[in-house]
Amino acid sequence: AQSVTQLDSQVPVFEEAPVELRCNYSSSVSVYLFWYVQYPNQGLQLLLKYLSGSTLVKGINGFEAEFNKSQTSFHLRKPSVHISDTAEYFCAVLNTGFQKLVFGTGTRLLVSP
Amino acid sequence: GAGVSQSPSNKVTEKGKDVELRCDPISGHTALYWYRQRLGQGLEFLIYFQGNSAPDKSGLPSDRFSAERTGESVSTLTIQRTQQEDSAVYLCASSLAGGSGNQPQHFGDGTRLSIL
C-alpha cells in the first residue's frame, strides 16, 4: 500500500521569499505524483504532476517540484511567493494501474506581508 | 465549460437523520470519485465509479454509506443514520477514463456536512 507524508502541517513565510513544501511517499511499485492546492471553501486544483521523464516538473502559478526516486520525495518549491499563494497544499500518489489517489495530510502555506 | 458541481454546498442535520449529497461531473467524464476530508486531515478515498459501476468501494467506512451513479452522469452519496463523526467536507472528482496519471481528477468545491 502507498502512503504520503507531509511533515509540515503549517509553513509561515514572508511575501517574496522562497518556499519549499516537503512530501515523501512510500510505495513498492511505480507511482505517479501530484500536488494539489486548495483555497478556502473550494475544491482541489491540480498544480502539477509527475508521470515520467524529466524529474523537474513545472506547474501553474510559478510552482515546480522535483521527483527524487532514491529519497522517495517530491518536494514543491516556489522561488518567490505571493500573498495569494496562501492556501492548503496536498501531495498525492497514484499507483500506476489503479485509480485511487492517496493524499498526504496537507501543508498550510501562510504568506504574510 | 462547467466544472464538477456539488450540492448542497453546506448541510447541517441532526444526528440520526439520513443525508443525500449530489455530484454532477464534467460532461464526458466516465470516472467519478468520492472523497471525505475531515477537519485538519487529508482526503480519504471513499468510492470510485467507472460509468455506473463501482469497481472500488473499499473506502466506504461503514454500511451506513452508499453511493450510486446514473449512467455516466450524476452520482449521489447517501449517509444513513448520521453520526457526529460523519461531519466533514465531502469532495467529488471526475476524470476521463480511469483517472490514470494522464487523466487527472477534477474536483468540485465539496459539500460541508455538519452533524449536530
How would you summarize the topology of this molecule?
The complex is a heterodimer of chains A (113) and B (116).
Chain A: E1 3-5, E2 10-14, E3 19-21, E4 24-26, E5 31-38, E6 44-50, E7 56-58, E8 64-68, E9 73-78, E10 87-95, E11 101-103, E12 107-112
Parallel strand pairs in A: 2-12
Antiparallel strand pairs in A: 1-4, 3-9, 5-6, 5-10, 7-8, 8-9, 10-11, 10-12
Chain B: E1 5-7, E2 10-13, E3 19-24, E4 31-37, E5 43-50, E6 53-56, E7 65-69, E8 75-79, E9 88-95, E10 106-107, E11 111-115
Parallel strand pairs in B: 2-11
Antiparallel strand pairs in B: 1-3, 3-8, 4-5, 4-9, 5-6, 7-8, 9-10, 9-11
Can you describe what's shown?
In chain A, a hairpin with a 5-residue loop joins strand 10 (87-95) and strand 11 (101-103). In chain A, strands 2, 5, 6, 10, 11 and 12 form a 6-stranded mixed β-sheet that branches. In chain A, strands 3-9-8-7 form a 4-stranded antiparallel β-sheet, with no helix packed on it. Chain A has a two-stranded antiparallel ribbon with strand order 1-4. Chain A has strands at residues 3-5, 10-14, 19-21, 24-26, 31-38, 44-50, 56-58, 64-68, 73-78, 87-95, 101-103, 107-112. Chain A is globular and about 45 Å long. Chain A starts with a strand and ends with a strand. Chain A is mainly beta and 113 residues long. Chain B is mainly β. Chain B is 0% helix and 49% strand. In chain B, a hairpin with a 5-residue loop joins strand 4 and strand 5. The mean pLDDT of chain B is 90. Classes of the chains: A mainly beta (113), B mainly beta (116). Chain A binds chain B through residues 4, 6, 9, 32, 34, 36, 41-46, 49, 51, 90, 92, 94, 96, 99-106, and chain B through 4, 31, 33, 35, 40-45, 48, 50, 56, 58-59, 91, 93, 98-102, 104-110.
